[in-house]
Amino acid sequence: MEKVVLPGEFLSTEEEYAEGKKSYSADGGVYASVLGTSEYSKENRDVSVNGFKNVRRLKRGDIVYGRVSIVKDNMVGIDLLRAEPKKGERVAMTSSYAAILVRNVSREYVKNLREFFRIGDVVRAKVDGVKPYGIDLRTDEQDLGVVEGYCSNCRSKLVKAGSEFKCLACGSNEKRKIAEQVRG
Q1: Domain range holding 25?
Q2: What is the C-alpha separation between 180 and 12, in angstroms, rounded?
Q3: Same-domain status, 83 and 151
Q4: What is the mean pLDDT of the chain?
């Protein structure tokens, strides 16, 4: 079974599998030395890592998708799902969590962030900065914002209806910062 692994990720104990290509042994375990997919050979009893080519770290300007995990008065917490690839590159995300500060949400005045995002919504955002303490995102452009919304009453998937989302299950109309690319 192939699995995407990060550098330093535990692959096996030395008793089960020996180190193979692009893996190393330390403290009785075998670990990945590069980002790639793990490959366990029962024949050779070793574990190797097939490294990805053209992999780079997340940087300012990259587009990412994430799920809203918390909405506060001054920021929105996002669990990162994936990055949009550019020109055949793969992007390695060194963190699984990011934040959208209230000043980076929209170009219009933001009185209440809950009118722009709700927990569970899937968001398309641009990386504003990658810092040691976290990743900052922004959604203040037309093609950025909620791409998949969920009803705050019944949790059904919402459909775009003009400039709002509508729940077909319970009839609720909900305002969000909707990305321009969302189709109704």
Answers
A1: 4-52
A2: 46
A3: yes
A4: 88
Q: Are strands 18-19 and 46-51 parallel, antiparallel or unpaired?
A: parallel
CB distance 180 to 143 below 8 Å: yes
Q: What single-letter amino acid sits at 174?
A: E
**135 plus 105 within the same structural domain:** yes
Alpha helix ranges (H) inside the chain: none
65 lies in the same domain as 150: yes
Supply the pTM of this predicted model.
0.70
DSSP-derived letter for residue 156 is P
Q: Considering its fold, how many domains does the chain have in total?
A: 2
CATH of the domain at 78: 2.40.50.140
Tokens standing for residue 14: 């030395």
Q: Round to whole Å and give the CA distance between 105 and 76.
A: 9
Of 183, 151, 148, 181, which Cα lies nearest the Cα of 168? 151
The encoded tokens of residue 52 equal 């990805």
pLDDT single digits (tens) 7-54: 889 999 999 999 999 999 998 999 998 888 899 999 999 999 988 776
Kindly report, residue by residue over 152-163, the tens digit of the pLDDT. 899 999 998 888
Instruction: For residue 146, list its beta bridge partners.
Output: 123, 178
* Structural tokens at position 147: 């791409």
CA distance 72 to 112: 9
Last residue within a domain, chosen from 31, 52, 73: 52
Tell me how many helices (H) and strands (E) the chain has.
0, 18
